[in-house]
Amino acid sequence: MAKLSERALIRLIREASAAAAPGLVQGIGDDCAVFGNSGEGRWLISTDTLVDGVHFDCHWHPPALLGRKSIAVNLSDIAAMGGCPRFVLLSLCLPPALDADWLQQWFSGVSAILAEYGCVLIGGDTVQSKELMISVTVIGEPGSGGILYRSGAIPGDIVYVSGTLGAAAAGLALFQKAKQEQIDLGLQLQWQVLLDSHLNPFPQVKLGQELASTGCVTAMQDISDGLATDLAHICQESGTGSILHLESLPSLPVLDAAAKFLGKEKLDLLLKGGEDYQLVFTVRPHREEELKVKMASFLDQQIFPVGIITEGQGVILEQKNGSRTDISFQGYEH
Amino acid sequence: MAKLSERALIRLIREASAAAAPGLVQGIGDDCAVFGNSGEGRWLISTDTLVDGVHFDCHWHPPALLGRKSIAVNLSDIAAMGGCPRFVLLSLCLPPALDADWLQQWFSGVSAILAEYGCVLIGGDTVQSKELMISVTVIGEPGSGGILYRSGAIPGDIVYVSGTLGAAAAGLALFQKAKQEQIDLGLQLQWQVLLDSHLNPFPQVKLGQELASTGCVTAMQDISDGLATDLAHICQESGTGSILHLESLPSLPVLDAAAKFLGKEKLDLLLKGGEDYQLVFTVRPHREEELKVKMASFLDQQIFPVGIITEGQGVILEQKNGSRTDISFQGYEH
Lengths: 334, 334
Fold this sequence. Notes:
The structure is a homodimer of 334-residue chains.
Chain A: H1 6-16, E1 24-26, E2 33-35, E3 43-51, H2 63-79, E4 83-94, H3 100-116, E5 120-128, E6 133-142, E7 158-161, H4 167-181, H5 192-199, H6 205-214, E8 217-222, H7 227-238, E9 241-245, H8 254-262, H9 266-272, E10 279-283, H10 288-298, E11 304-310, E12 314-318, E13 324-326
Parallel strand pairs in A: 4-5, 9-12
Antiparallel strand pairs in A: 1-2, 2-3, 3-6, 4-6, 7-10, 7-11, 8-10, 9-11, 12-13
């Protein structure tokens, strides 16, 4: 039997989907689709599915935190376009033996994060299945700064990320190692920040809206599959290339020790691990200072320049010694 | 481990979900949620998940027809409120060994039915899983007759269905029997209409819009879980009861032979089988004649009075001899 890769299937779907239709502002090819009839407001919509054993593991993921994360990864898609989340639909595939307490705790996490973001559950369905699967659809509105797409970057723009990279990937790898080798991670407090990054990611909804409001940002997306893949999406949609500077990639100090402990390349955690749910965005060089001033007055959050948009295509990683490697789309594929 | 029934979970979710929020017109409790900011148009949205081995069986379901059905069951939710489908998002959980040809044929069915209904694919994701699972979100707009809810029925209204019942349930049972007993159904042409009803259901999108336009209909929903459950939803949301007249339930002539062949009660197929994807709706008695005249001028489709809305609650089945049974929510639970 021939197999179809995820990328091939997405290409098939993309070719079959309409680039233009009445009321359609943005189809497949961004964090959210955007629709709305002319003369009326616009809506953002995105859907994501989490599968037990693929996207999470019930062995180490406390149900309430998994409930939060189930919603957070979708809110992140709204954040990536500068939007404001409004409504959520849930589709749950539940194994018959699933524990009622587990489900109630999971749902308490869902309810808590929805309330924090002023978002409302408006529909869904539940079906029986062998595997636990959680499918979430989120609907949002543009924030006051309007919508930021992946397609607005031009050569010369500076590439920024909104926080440190690799922590969630390291956290996941730590849980996997601990399970395999039966280590108790609870005794190693240094890893806690990494474990938390994996268990309970923070969607950058407020930051996304603020960045859109500055008027300095040209393209944006969230880092869900690793910067190597997510910046490649911006390049693909903008018709540009990019160079990342290895020395500029921000990470937590503990990531070096974690990479060593895990026997992994720190660089792979930074660029290919995924699930950081930070934002990657591009800024016109002459507006960098303005952005920094505006950011300082808005929120107490550091942003990090990590590279530059170029002619050409793809994502090139440049080391201090000048050597270059193409890392386009080398991020995590679930 | 304690288990949570689907109904208990839905109750939990419903209690936690907002009945009212800015921009929310209808939350959980109807075929679709309805949202829209004041002074702007409204949008309908619904999500449904199909699981291999639960909602369909790849052994007998040709992939292109399954593609059609994956979308049709969602279009039916839009039809149930008199809406017009516009946009679709797909979330696919695919086993790694899934055949590429199968997937391409499945997708050709999806594309075909979307084109027939002027509906556009605007987003989605694909993930790997052990089980094949298909989650579809559909977004629609109100038709020219506005939105029909489940909640508008009042005592005295006549209950109608838009076509024969039980054919899809019989078709499914025939496939199951054929698989179990290794019978070749291809040789028994009499069953074809039942098999087709299961394989390729027809969403009543046009009829739903026409019924809403008449102004004669007070409540509506689609028959996906069997009339015993779906009419119970109308009663629950309207705060009424209902009586169904056994003798009035329409079915195809071949259903008697199929029930006998299957060793099943015909009544169970009619009321509890589900997946008919006809519409059940209620009409003020003094507007029945007007509705019939309007229907005749609109479309060549018969509609069938099957009962009456009453005070009280639930769905009562009344036999010719006057004996009554409560059948509320006795439809199919996947």
